[in-house]
Amino acid sequence: MIKENKQCIVVIEDLTHQGEGVGKIEGFPLFIAGAVPGDKVKVKIIKLKKNFGLAELVKIIKPSEDRVSSICQYHNLCGGCQTLTLDYEAQLVFKEKRVKDALRRIGKIDTAIKPVLGMENPHRYRNKAQFPIGYSEDKLSIGFFQRGSHDIVSIDDCKIQHPFNSKVIDIIKNYIRANNVSIYNEKTGKGLLRHLITKIGFQTQEQMVILVINGDTMPNEEELAHTMTQTFPNLKSLVINTNTKKTNVIMGMNNRVVYGHNYITDTLCGLEFQISPHAFYQVNPVQTEVLYDQVVKLADLKGDETVLDLYCGIGTISLLLAQRAGKVIGVESVEAAVEDARINAENNQIVNTEFYAANAEKILPELASQSVKPEIIVVDPPRKGCDKEVLEAMVKLNPSKIIYVSCNPSTLARDLRFLEDNVYKTEMVQPVDLFPNTVHVEMVVLMSRVEK
Ligand SMILES: C[S@@+](CC[C@H](N)C(=O)[O-])C[C@H]1O[C@@H](n2cnc3c(N)ncnc32)[C@H](O)[C@@H]1O
Predict the structure, then answer these.
(1) CA of 39 to the centre of ligand 1 (A)
(2) Does 291 contact ligand 1 (Cβ within 6 A)?
(3) Cα–Cα nearest to 129, from 77, 191, 207
(4) Does the beta carbon of 331 lie inside 6 Å of ligand 1?
(5) Cα 379 from Cα 408, distance rounded (Å)
(6) Mind listing the domains of the chain with CATH numbers?
């Protein structure tokens, strides 16, 4: 009899999308955080739902051959690296299966999935961190949210982040204590300091620190800037971002530069990019080059094509393709990112690009009814995928190729199905591991127009 609080022994067969181990008791699946495929574990059932149960890991009876020891002291608490204790090769196999399952189940797409392109050193790969600030058990904490909650796990170091973060955390904690800075309370909406955000250019080593506050100014900002610049000779930007809204969205609209510029620069695939506080920039620059190489290869440009790059961010893919195309039109909703994209084109002496600051779903139907005739459309939407209006306008624009870059297998599968139902065929699916030690996976897909 399966009931709550009962203890039982299960062998882990799979992982959920959230990275919990899946083991079955009498054919009924239990999800167990901290267990990896191949583990034989004793668990306690915590909650039963209609189709699955949640269980707590009590004891590992026999560890999986794919289990590796954790290199992070916060792993059991922090919600970040869900697959840190799974051997890296096994992580890649899991991601390939995850993509395949979603494409088959949701999209009914049976195109072969290529093996995931993994990373040589899957640690210290992130160039951006967003740390919530708060109190946990009355102790000042800067770190990450605990798995499934808004309690903060205070951390000194994160093994997938650049080591520079540890020092920044230390300085901000000292600054908070020395200046009696109040900390934002999510429940009451009172208190000043909310989040610490860091960005670093891996090639240039240029650093940006953003403090998100529930107000306009911080005490002794100049002194903080002085301490920061003394500690970090590569600090290029210290920014105060104002967010006074009671919301889970981390950044508010307004930035004020306390030190340096409103951007840092980095180089990627031989081009230089300016990145401002609100602009998206892929978080794993080593693997981003692998991803973008795939896009360039699949585009296979001859030199005179018109390319549409939707959801273009600061124009990274646009500029890479512009070097090989007749013209590239980029569309992006964040105005600051579009400004970066235009400056990036200029700084790299690329003259055949045009960028629009607009929502893709709004501008694309307009472009489709004008005389724009792209041979290739590249899309790289956020996790929710493309709006129906975007997909419909893409079909209307009738490109011979669509290159779809995605970080969410489920919405990718849904959108590929729409395009397959509208004269496109999925030719190739290449997953790339942009997020080692987590459940997330990036994919690049080539679709071609089926000639009737
Ligand atoms: C996954 S990022 C890709 C950016 C870029 N292609 C890159 O590789 O750096 C998605 C981008 O889409 C933008 N975005 C989100 N919603 C949008 C919309 N409705 N229309 C246009 N751009 C949007 C985001 O601001 C973000 O820059």
Answers:
(1) 39
(2) no
(3) 207
(4) yes
(5) 13
(6) 7-62 (2.40.50.140), 97-119+284-449 (3.40.50.150), 128-268 (2.40.50.1070)
